[in-house]
Write a structure and sequence with these properties.
The structure holds three protein chains of three kinds. By secondary structure, chain A is of the alpha+beta class. Chain A contains eleven helices and 14 strands. In chain A, the strands form four sheets. Chain A has a five-stranded antiparallel β-sheet with strand order 4-5-10-6-7, with helices on one face. Chain A has a four-stranded antiparallel β-sheet with strand order 11-12-13-14, sandwiched between helices. Chain A has a three-stranded parallel β-sheet with strand order 1-3-2, with helices on one face. A seven-stranded mixed β-sheet of chain B has the order 3-7-1-16-13-14-15, sandwiched between helices. In chain B, helix 12 packs antiparallel against helix 13 and helix 18 packs across helix 19. The chains are: A alpha+beta, B alpha+beta, C alpha+beta. Chains in contact: A-B, A-C, B-C. At the B-C interface, helix 1, helix 4 and helix 18 of B face helix 1, helix 2, helix 3, helix 4 and helix 5 of C.
C-alpha cells in the first residue's frame, strides 16, 4: 500500500478545491472497496478524499413528490434500518441488505458501489429498474446521468476528473408497481453475484395486464445492462408464468457473459433467464401483497 | 498400591467444564503469534514468485537494501547448504533439502507463491514497498497443473533428477514427476471381479483445497549475539519447528528456543515451517527481532493445502458382499514429493472386510504449492471415491446403504490392506447408531431432495509426549505440557489429571510451555494429543500417587503395596479394624516437611493407538434451476472411545463436517492455464458461512480404546472423511445424477442438469 | 515514512490520542500503535470478520476503516465488551457452550453478536446466522456459536432482580 494523504472536507466547495490541486485523487465513502484496492496496489492515489463529512452526501430525503434522494455516501444500513424506506422501496433493500455482510453494510454505500463500477454490483440492477438518476457535481455545476448510462466498462464509470457523485435520485414509481432484485451466489451470503436480475413490474388498472416493465441484469456483461426486449416481451400481456418465461428467454438472449472463476458463460445465460422469471414472480407477489 | 481407574464411573471425565484458556480468548487477551510485541521489533515480508514454473536466473536486492528503514534482505543464498535427510514431523515427513528450497527457492520457482526473498523494515508498509524494489530475473517454463498430465511421459519435468521410486525399491529408467508408486494387494482381485454379480467402475476427481484456518502463518525471531535463537510462532508443534529450523540453519537444537503462541487453527497446515528460518535469518542480519507475517493470499498460494486427486475404483459384489476391489489413486504432492496417497490407499477400504484387493498409489509432483497435512490427510478423497462406488453397488442390488455397510463391516480382528489386524473398533456401532437415529428413521420427501450416507476411517497417531505435574502446597497442581492446544486440550488433559488424582478440575492449572521448559513433545496432529499426552498425564498422575503412597507408607510404617489411593484419599487398613488415612490435600500441604516437592513426570512414546470410525447421514435439497445444494439436515455418528470433554468432541465433529461440506460443494483452488490461483481470498475461496449450514447433530458412540487408561481415541480427524461422499450420495439421490468430481458446485450441477457444459 | 496524523478519539470509553499514517487501518492502529491486539487479522480485506469492532454503534471490519477516520469517533473493541471483571453474557455463553476452539475468530464473533443483540435482543436462529455470515469460523461448524448467541439473548431476557 503506497502512502497517500487523507482529506476530510466538510463542504462540497472544499472538496472541489482539493480535487483541483493537481494530485491524483480518489474518493472515500465506506472504504470497503477502495481501502482494499489501495492495499492490494490495484489502485493508486496521492490523496484520499473522505466524503462522509459533506452533509449533501450523507442525507436521505423522502421527497413530497413520492421520490427518494439518497446521498451517495449514506451507509446501506441507514437505508434498510429506515422503516419508511424499507416499506416503500423494498426493491432497494433487496440490494442494500446483501452487499457484503453486516459489517460491510455499516459503511458501504450505494454511491460507492456504483462508482466501483463492478459489472456484478448488487446496487446497479435494482437502481436501474427504479429508473434512478445520478446527480453528479463538479466545481462548475451538476448534471444528471441515468444509472444505466453511468457505466463505461468493468471498473469504469463516466465520472470525469473533478466530478463527485452527489446523490441517487429515485423518481416516483408507477402505480401498482413493485421492484424485486436478487442474485445467484454459491453461498448464501458474502459472495459476488454469478448473475443477477432486477425487475420492475407495473400492472394496469384492472390488475390483469402488465402496463410496463423494466428488466436489468448484472454480471452477464462488461457493465450491468437493461434488457428492453425482456420488458417488451411482457408489456400488455397477462402476468403469468408463460409471459414471464418469455422475458426470461429475452434476458438469456441479451446476456453476454464470460466464463471466469465465479461462473461459466452457459451457466450465466441460463441464470439470466431463471433469475428474471423468478424476479417477475416475486415482484408480482409484492404488488399483490401491497393491495 | 492398587488402581481402580478402569472403572467407567468417572468423576470428571465426561463433564463439560469451562476450558482453562477460555476467559483470555473471549476477552481478546490471549496472545497469538501475530500479537507479540518486542522492543525494536522489525516487520518482515516475503517476496513470492509470480510464475508457477520458472528458473531463477538472478536476484538483485541492492535497491531494496538501500531504502532507509530497510534493515535486512535475505534470499536462499543466506541459507547454509542443506542436507539430503528426511525428518519426521508427525503425520508427514520432510526432506531437509526440499524444505529449505520451499522456504526460499534456490534455482527454480516451482509454483506461484513460492518464496524467493524476504525483507525486514521498520514498518509493514515499508517492507512491502521494499519487496517491489527487488529485481528477480525469471526464465519462465511451462507449468504442469493436472495430476494426470503430470504423470505423462512428455510432461514438463519439475526436476531433471527425480526418478520414480517403483515397487520393491526399484528406480524408473527416466526422470519423472511420479515421485513414487506404491501397492497394497491381497487375495485375487481379478478373479473376484470376474466372478462378481455386480461391478461398478468409475473415476473420481477432487480439487486442491486449503485447511482454511483463520489465522495466517506468522513467526517472530530474535537471533541473539551469543548464537541462541528465540522464535515465537503459531505451530502445531514447537519441537518440530525447533528441529526443522535447526536442520535448515545447521544450528544446535539446544540453542534454539521455540515459544508456541496461541494458534489460530491448523488442521495439519501448521505442521511444516515456512517463515521461522526466514525470520531468524532476517534477525541475524539486522540485529533486531523480526516479525514475519503472511497475508491471506500468501497463505493460499504459499502454504500447504491438500492434494487434488484422481481415483479410479473397480468394485465387485458377490452375494451382497464386497468380493473384490481394484483401485488406482494419483495424488498431487505439489512442488515436492509427499502427498498423502499412502494414507488414502490404506484407509480407503478400512471400514469393510474385503479379501481380494489391489490398490496402486502414485505420488505426483506438479507446479502447485507443496501439500501439507489436512485433517485425516488422504482419506477424504479416497472415501469420496469408494463410498460413492459402494453406494451405487448397494443401489444395484436394492440394499439399504447402511445395512449394506453393516453387512460388510470390519470389526476387531479384521485385517487392513497392510495386513495389520484391527484392535477393538466401532464401525458397526457407528452404522447401527445412524440406522437407529431419528434422522435416518425420518422420511425424506419432496422433489429434488435426497439422503446420503458414508463411512470413514482414520488411524490416529501416538508419538512422543512429555509432561510434568507439580503439586502445590494449597492442593493445586501445575500441569506443564508441550502439546499445542488447538481446540481445548488444556481442558481435556487437565480433566484426565484431575480424574487420576481424584481432585477438582479447577485445581489443575494447565500450561503449554516452550521447548526449553519441558521434554520433547511431538506435534498436535494425528488426533493424538488427548490420547498420547493424556496417557502421559495419567502416568504423571500415577507418579504423584505413588510418591504420596510411599510417603504415607513410610510415615505409617506399613508396606506401600497395601496403601490405597482413591478419589484423593490415601488409606491403609490391616483388615482387622486398624485404619489410617491421609489425603492428596494433606500430602500437598505437608510436602516440604515430608521429603520435599512432589512432582509427577512422564515421558513416553505412546502405544495402543485406537483407530477411529465415523458414519454420517445428510439430507440435501437441490434447486434444479440454479444447481444450488442446500444442506437440510446432518447427523454424524463417531466412535470416540471415551469422550473426555463431550462438548469439544462434538465441536471437532461439527467443525470437520463443515469443512467437509465446503470441500464437497464449493471449495477449490481455481487456477488459470499459467498456474495462477485466481481465487486466493476468503471472498472467492468459498468456505461455508454460518448461513450455509444447519445445526450439526452428533452421536458420540463410546467404544473405549483398550490401549488407553481412559479409553481415549483420537477424535479430530476422522469426521472429515465421510462428508464428501455422503453429500455426493445425497445429491445423487436427489437428482438421479452421479457427480464424480468435486466441488459439486452450482455451476457443475446446473450444467449437468440442463446439459449446458 | 509518510507524515503521521494526530487523531483524538474514544476507545472503550476512554479518551485516546494516537499518531498514524493515513494508510494505516484501524486494525493496524489498534494492534501496532495502541497494543490492543484482541481484533485479529484474518484476511485484511473485509471477508472474515475477525477484526470486527463497533464504530459509532455499528459493527465494522476494522481492516476496512482508516485510523484517521476515527477522529471524534467512539470505538468499542473486544477489550471493552466485559464490564471489568464481569464478563458480558455473550462471553459467558461462549465459554459455557464451548463455542470456541482455536479462538482466533472469537473476538470478532463476540463483537458482531453484541452489535446484533444491541439492535435486536431476541433474534431467531436464522437472524443470528444471517447477521454472523460475515464472520468466518473454521473450527466449530458454527453450531455452538449460534447456540451461544441464542443463549446469551435468552439470558438477557431475564430481568435483573
Amino acid at each position: 500500500m503506497e502512502a497517500f494523504e487523507y482529506l476530510a472536507p466538510s463542504s462540497l466547495a472544499e472538496a472541489f478545491t482539493a480535487l483541483g490541486n493537481g494530485k491524483r485523487s480518489m474518493m472515500l465513502a465506506g472504504g470497503t472497496d477502495v481501502i482494499v484496492q489501495l492495499r492490494e496496489n490495484r489502485r493508486h492515489c496521492d490523496q484520499l478524499i473522505d466524503l462522509k463529512h459533506i452533509p449533501e452526501l450523507m442525507s436521505v430525503d423522502i421527497r413530497s413528490d413520492g421520490g427518494l434522494d439518497i446521498g451517495a455516501a449514506v451507509p446501506l444500513a441507514d437505508l434498510y434500518n429506515n422503516r419508511e424506506i424499507a416499506r416503500r422501496w423494498p426493491g432497494l433493500v433487496d440490494s442494500a441488505s446483501i452487499i457484503g455482510g453486516t459489517a460491510i453494510q455499516s459503511r458501504a454505500s450505494f454511491g460507492g458501489n456504483l462508482c466501483n463500477a463492478s459489472p456484478a454490483a448488487d446496487s446497479s440492477p435494482s437502481l436501474m429498474v427504479h429508473d434512478a438518476r445520478l446527480v453528479v457535481a463538479s466545481a462548475s455545476g451538476t448534471r444528471e446521468v441515468p444509472v444505466e448510462a453511468f457505466f463505461a466498462g468493468p471498473g469504469r464509470s463516466v465520472l470525469q476528473p473533478g466530478e463527485i457523485l452527489l446523490r441517487i435520485s429515485i423518481p416516483p414509481q408507477p402505480a401498482r408497481s413493485a421492484v424485486f432484485y436478487h442474485r445467484f451466489i454459491p453461498r448464501n451470503e458474502m459472495d459476488i453475484a454469478v448473475a443477477s436480475a432486477g425487475v420492475r413490474l407495473a400492472l394496469d388498472e384492472s390488475g390483469e395486464r402488465i402496463a410496463s416493465a423494466r428488466v436489468a441484469l448484472g454480471a452477464v456483461g462488461p457493465t450491468p445492462m437493461m434488457v428492453a426486449a425482456a420488458a417488451e416481451a411482457v408489456t400488455g400481456q397477462a402476468p403469468t408464468s408463460e409471459t414471464f418465461a418469455k422475458a426470461g428467454e429475452a434476458a438469456a438472449a441479451a446476456a453476454q457473459p464470460i466464463t471466469d472463476m465465479r461462473g461459466s458463460m452457459a451457466q450465466r445465460k441460463h441464470l439470466a433467464s431463471v433469475l428474471t422469471v423468478r424476479a417477475f414472480e416475486r415482484a408480482l407477489q409484492r404488488i399483490r401483497e401491497a393491495r | 498400591m492398587t488402581t481402580t481407574d478402569r472403572s467407567t464411573n468417572y468423576r470428571i471425565i465426561g463433564t463439560r467444564p469451562v476450558r482453562p484458556d477460555g476467559v483470555e480468548k473471549v476477552t481478546g487477551k490471549a496472545q497469538y503469534g501475530a500479537d507479540i510485541r518486542l522492543p525494536g521489533l522489525l516487520h518482515g515480508r516475503v517476496l513470492r514468485s509470480p510464475h508457477a514454473h520458472a528458473r531463477i536466473v538472478a536476484i538483485d536486492t541492492s535497491e531494496a537494501e538501500k531504502m532507509p528503514g530497510v534493515l535486512a534482505v535475505v534470499t536462499h543464498r543466506d541459507f547454509p547448504a542443506a542436507r539430503d535427510v528426511v525428518q519426521e514431523i508427525g503425520e508427514s515427513s520432510v526432506n531437509a533439502l526440499e524444505l529449505s528450497d520451499n522456504v526460499l527457492a534456490s534455482r527454480k520457482a516451482l509454483y506461484r507463491g513460492h518464496a524467493v526473498a524476504a525483507v525486514a523494515a521498520t514498518s509493514v508498509h515499508l517492507a512491502e514497498e521494499a519487496l517491489t524494489k527487488i529485481r528477480v530475473e525469471y526464465q519462465v517454463l511451462p507449468p504442469v497443473l493436472d495430476v494426470r498430465d503430470a504423470m505423462r511421459e512428455d510432461a514438463p519435468l519439475l526436476s531433471e533428477t527425480r526418478f520414480t521410486k517403483e515397487l520393491g525399491g526399484a528406480r524408473s529408467e527416466k526422470p519423472s514427476n511420479i515421485a513414487s508408486h506404491l501397492r497394497f494387494q491381497g487375495g485375487n482381485p481379478d478373479a473376484a471381479l470376474e466372478e462378481a454379480d455386480v461391478v461398478i467402475e468409475r473415476e473420481y476427481r477432487t480439487k486442491m483445497v486449503h485447511q482454511g484456518y483463520i489465522e495466517p502463518h506468522n513467526s517472530t525471531a530474535t537471533w541473539n549475539a551469543d548464537g541462541t535463537i528465540t522464535i515465537w510462532t503459531s505451530t502445531q508443534g514447537a519441537f518440530s519447528v525447533r528441529a526443522q529450523v535447526a536442520e535448515i540453519l545447521r544450528h544446535p537444537i539446544s540453542s534454539i528456543r521455540v515459544i508456541p503462541m496461541e494458534i489460530g487453527g491448523g488442521f495439519g497446515g501448521k505442521l511444516p515451517i515456512y517463515l521461522d528460518p526466514v525470520a531468524a535469518l532476517l534477525s541475524k542480519k539486522s540485529g533486531r527481532p523480526v516479525k514475519v507475517l503472511m497475508n491471506r493470499t500468501d497463505v493460499f498460494e504459499g502454504s500447504g493445502p491438500t492434494s487434488g486427486t484422481w481415483v479410479k475404483v473397480k468394485l465387485g459384489l458377490k452375494d451382497g458382499k464386497i468380493s473384490g476391489v481394484k483401485a488406482e489413486l494419483a495424488y498431487e504432492a505439489g512442488a515436492y514429493p509427499g502427498s498423502p496417497v499412502g494414507a488414502g490407499s490404506m484407509t480407503m477400504l478400512a471400514p469393510y472386510v474385503i479379501d481380494n484387493f489391489q490398490i496402486d498409489g502414485y505420488d505426483v509432483v506438479l507446479n502447485k504449492p507443496k501439500v501439507a497435512a489436512y485433517r485425516a490427510p488422504g482419506s477424504p478423497a479416497a472415501a469420496f471415491a469408494f463410498e460413492q462406488a459402494l453406494d451405487e453397488a448397494a443401489r444395484a442390488i436394492g440394499a439399504d446403504p447402511l445395512q449394506f455397510r453393516l453387512d460388510n463391516s470390519a470389526r476387531e480382528g479384521s485385517r487392513m490392506v497392510t495386513g495389520a489386524p484391527l484392535a477393538k473398533v466401532g464401525h458397526e456401532e457407528c452404522v447401527q447408531a445412524i440406522l437407529d437415529s431419528p434422522h435416518y428413521k425420518s422420511p425424506i420427501e419432496g422433489p429434488y431432495r435426497g439422503r446420503g450416507v458414508a463411512s470413514g476411517y482414520w488411524f490416529n497417531g501416538g508419538m512422543q509426549s512429555s509432561v510434568v505435574a507439580a503439586v502445590n502446597p494449597d492442593g493445586t497442581v501445575n500441569l506443564i505440557e508441550g502439546s499445542t492446544d488447538i481446540g481445548g486440550t488444556r481442558a481435556s488433559l487437565a480433566m484426565q489429571l484431575a480424574e487420576t488424582l481424584g481432585i477438582r478440575y479447577e485445581d489443575i492449572h494447565a500450561t503449554v510451555v516452550d521447548t526449553d521448559s519441558v521434554g520433547h513433545n511431538d506435534v498436535t496432529g494425528g488426533s493424538r494429543t488427548t490420547f498420547a499426552s493424556g496417557m502421559a498425564v495419567y502416568q504423571a498422575g500415577m507418579d504423584i500417587r505413588q510418591q504420596m503412597c510411599e510417603r504415607a507408607a513410610r510415615e505409617w510404617n506399613v508396606p506401600v503395596d497395601k496403601v490405597e489411593y482413591e478419589d484423593g484419599r490415601i488409606t491403609w487398613t490391616d483388615g482387622e479394624g486398624t485404619f489410617k488415612e491421609t489425603s492428596f490435600a494433606e500430602q500437598a500441604r505437608t510436602a516440604a516437611q515430608k521429603g520435599g516437592p512432589i512432582v509427577g513426570k512422564a515421558s513416553l512414546s505412546a502405544r495402543g493407538v485406537g483407530g477411529a470410525y465415523s458414519t454420517h447421514v445428510v439430507d440435501v435439497e437441490v434447486d434444479p434451476d440454479t444447481g444450488k445444494v442446500t444442506i437440510l439436515r446432518y447427523t454424524a455418528a463417531q466412535d470416540v472411545g471415551t469422550a473426555i470433554h463431550p462438548s469439544y468432541v462434538e465441536g471437532q465433529i461439527q467443525g470437520a463436517v463443515a469443512q467437509g461440506v465446503g470441500w464437497a460443494l464449493n471449495e477449490e483452488y481455481y487456477f488459470d492455464d499459467e498456474g495462477r490461483m485466481l481465487n486466493s481470498s476468503f471472498l472467492d475461496y468459498r468456505m461455508p458461512t454460518s448461513l450455509d449450514l444447519p445445526m450439526i447433530d452428533t452421536i458420540l458412540v463410546e467404544v473405549p480404546n483398550p490401549g488407553h487408561p481412559y479409553g481415549v481415541r483420537g477424535v479430530g480427524e476422522v469426521p472429515i472423511v465421510p462428508p464428501l461422499a455422503a453429500v455426493a450420495n445425497a445429491i445423487a439421490d436427489a437428482t438421479g445424477r452421479r457427480f464424480t468430481e468435486l466441488p459439486i458446485s452450482p455451476r457443475r450441477v446446473v450444467e449437468e442438469l440442463h446439459g449446458l457444459a | 515514512m509518510a507524515r503521521r496524523t494526530h487523531v483524538t478519539t474514544s476507545i472503550n470509553g476512554l479518551p485516546t490520542e494516537f499518531l498514524c499514517e493515513p494508510r494505516q487501518s484501524v486494525l493496524e492502529v489498534l494492534r501496532d500503535e495502541l497494543g490492543l491486539t484482541g481484533a485479529k487479522e484474518g484476511c485484511n480485506n473485509g471477508n472474515c470478520g475477525a477484526c470486527a469492532v463497533i464504530l459509532n454503534g455499528r459493527v465494522v471490519n476494522s481492516c476496512c476503516v482508516l485510523g484517521v477516520e476515527l477522529e471524534g469517533a467512539e470505538l468499542t473493541t473486544i477489550e471493552g465488551i466485559a464490564d471489568g471483571e464481569k464478563l458480558h453474557p455473550l462471553q459467558q455463553a461462549f465459554l459455557e457452550e464451548a463455542a470456541l476452539q482455536c479462538g482466533i475468530c472469537t473476538p470478532g464473533f463476540i463483537v458482531s453478536a453484541k452489535a446484533l443483540l444491541d439492535s435486536d435482543p431476541h433474534p431467531d436462529e436464522h437472524k443470528v446466522r444471517f447477521w454472523l455470515a460475515g464472520n468466518l469460523c473454521r473450527c466449530t461448524g458454527y453450531d455452538k456459536i449460534v447456540r451461544a448467541v441464542l443463549k446469551a439473548a435468552d439470558a438477557a431476557e431475564t430481568p435483573v432482580p
